[in-house]
Amino acid sequence: MSGLKKQMWLGLMGKLKKSMDKKLRSRPQMEKRLVITAKLSKIYPKDMEAPAGGVDDMTKLSYLHEPGVLQNLKIRYELNEIYTYTGNILIAINPFQRLPHIYDAHMMQQYKGAPFGELSPHVFAVADVAYRAMINEGKSNSILVSGESGAGKTETTKMLMRYLAYLGGRAVTEGRTVEQQVLESNPVLEAFGNAKTVRNNNSR
Ligand SMILES: Nc1ncnc2c1ncn2[C@@H]1O[C@H](COP(=O)(O)OP(=O)(O)OP(=O)(O)O)[C@@H](O)[C@H]1O
């Protein structure tokens, strides 16, 4: 078991058996015969009030520690909930499979103008709030998309661009909508701006 997994196991799954000096003994609920001993400093409290399906905003967790955050993201990911907020930051987990229902026209319509945090965490909600701030304040705005290679930055950016193009209207020039034209520019930008990496072959 890796160090981090062990921490999560102990902190979130185990039932405390006995305290010995600076070490604790834990009996994980799912493995009756297994008793794990770990240093006190490696044990984290479990949020007993968190719902079984996890929380949609990590600030709702009673204890904000790494194993708790990872456990919450894992629970949501297993339910195909790839987006989770931490305040006004959106965390996206790469689903490595197409989830068309979460990006269709109906979803875009739902997020249009909806107050941030009212609907489930989504990349459209971030785009919507950025767009509205730009309009209301009359100033340019930026959305930072960050992550390691293959994390899903390009896909996320495409969804952001799709949503912004959708908000910007559907004017047609040369037989194609603004949305189509914006998205068609992406492969060209990627081809010149990206290198193929061991984790991602999206540019050659
Ligand atoms: N939201 C998503 N839905 C479905 N598949 C996704 C999603 N995000 C990422 N993927 C899958 O993961 C692959 C890698 O994602 P992407 O190219 O966006 O990563 P990246 O962070 O831009 O990587 P790099 O930094 O190497 O360019 C995509 O080709 C796609 O197959």
UniProtKB/TrEMBL annotation:
Binding site for ATP: G147, E148, S149, G150, A151, G152, K153, T154
One cellular component term from this protein's GO annotations in UniProt: myosin complex
Keyword ATP-binding: yes
Myosin motor domain segment(s): 53-204
SUPFAM superfamilies hit by this protein: P-loop containing nucleoside triphosphate hydrolases
Record keywords: Actin-binding, ATP-binding, Motor protein, Myosin, Nucleotide-binding
Single GO molecular function: cytoskeletal motor activity
Keyword Nucleotide-binding included in the entry's annotation: yes
Gene3D superfamilies: Kinesin motor domain (3.40.850.10)
Family membership: Belongs to the TRAFAC class myosin-kinesin ATPase superfamily. Myosin family.
Protein name: Myosin motor domain-containing protein
Source organism of this protein record: Eruca vesicaria subsp. sativa (Garden rocket)
